[in-house]
Every structure is written in structure tokens, then in C-alpha cells.
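Input protein
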Amino acid sequence: MSSAGQIDDLVSANHILYQEGVVDGFGHVSVRHEKDPQRFFLARSIAPATVRAKDIMEFDMTGEPVNARGRKPYLERYIHSEIFRARPDVIAIIHSHSAALIPFGITGTQLKPVYHMSGFLGSATPIFEIREAGGPATDMLIRDRKLGAALAKSLGPAPFALMRGHGSVAVGATLKQVVYRAIYAEINARLQADAMRLGTVTYLNDAEAAGASRTNDAVIDRPWDHWKSKVKSKKH
């Protein structure tokens, strides 16, 4: 196991994502082992809001548990293992089915940043089409390494990707950053849909998006501490 601090933050990330409406009974978040980059941590297969330190499992880069001790892993753990394998720069990953994002993966309408908090989205968000990798009759889930690798390829160097008819995946250089990205991608999707109903939308240009992203990354502790304090206050 890694340090208690890393495990505590991963537990908090699960609770924050539930509280902020990104995950419900489904969805998961992982973090790369801080001492061994060929390992990562991910909870056992339970609802994120119920995750505790004892539920955190260690995995290798094949997506298999190092020591399951009778605990059942998430079926879609290959999302995490294959993105970690393909992206050495990625330290944390979130997969969710947050509702406002789903329409952008099934309509051909590009998800784009409409305000400074979502500058990380950039000018275009990749969309993973599972039919191209798994054929026309999958259950839409990333249930093996082949599908995980195909998703990682669609993601490419981007920080965020949609999964047609399924959800999304966010990646980051820290656990705090990826939680920020998952939350604000969902908020951006709601704002963009609202704005499109009102009229023509003025999106951030590439320079604005990059600048806003740098500025927000520099103060990432502020929202993290806020979200974490909200989670802790509900426990008491």
C-alpha cells in the first residue's frame, strides 16, 4: 500500500464526485501509485459514496488486482489500466455517466468550453465509438484490455473524452485536477445546452481556454479544500 494520505484523498475523491453529482451508484476514480508507477489504486466494486479506505485495491497494468482478498473489482477497471499504460503523464482517472454530458456524445454537437472554469476542454472533445473496437453488439462496457486500449487511443493526448451512449472519462496530472475536470465538464455541458437554446454561443478560443486552464490549475487547492470540507461536514 501507499501512504495513508494518498488513500485518504482517493476516498475523499469518491465522496466528492458523488456529492457534486458526477457519479451515483456507478462510476469510479483511480490514482497511480505514488511509489510504483506500474501500479494504481481503485476501489472495489461498490457505489462511490460508500467507499472507505478498506475498500481501496491495488492493481497492476494488466488491470488485475495485486491482492484481491476476496474483494470484487469493477468490471471496467480496464479503462484505468489501459489509459495509465498509454499515458505516463496521467496520475488520476475518472469514469462517470454524468447526465448532462451524454447528449454531446450522441448528437454530433461538440462539447466546447463556454466559460473560464472549463478551459481545459479546449477546442474539441474526442468521442469514443465502441462499435469501431468491439463491433455492433457490445453491452457498451469496457470489459477487457482491447476495449480499454481503444478508448485510450481515442482519448489520445486530451484531458477529457466522451463515450458514445455511455459516459465520459477525465484524466489529470493529479487527483485534485481530475476531480476538478470531471465536475466542471458536467457544469459546462449544462451551461452549453442552456446557451444553445438561447441563441448563438460564443465559445472560448484556444488562447483563452489555455490561459484559463493554467490559471485554474494554479489554484486547484481552493475548490478541492471546499469540496472536501463539504464531504467531511456531512459526516458529522
